[in-house]
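Recall the central idea of this unit: under ordinary conditions, the amino acid sequence of a chain determines the structure it adopts. In this exercise we apply that idea directly, starting from the sequence alone.
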Amino acid sequence: MTLDELFAIICQRRDHPTPSSYTAKLLAAGEDEILKKIGEESVEVILAAKAQGDARLVEELSDLAYHTLVLLAARGLSPDDIRQELARRHR
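Accordingly, the structure predicted from this sequence is:
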């Protein structure tokens, strides 16, 4: 699955929430809860990088990427906004 595919699923869950969807629940909880999860995942990335091996690091980076995409969706932004900013920085 690509990050764009994951983002599309997140947006679908935002636009058509179901009670069983973690993503829909997280979005409904609001930005503060999303930011809390990003903070937690950021710490877990650091811990994994320092002492838990590459497999654990990839797992935690995946969690961080997911929660970052949820924040983008909550704000009405997209991965394209990040791509545009990176392109601007490397002109």
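Residues 47 and 76 are 31 Å apart (CA to CA).
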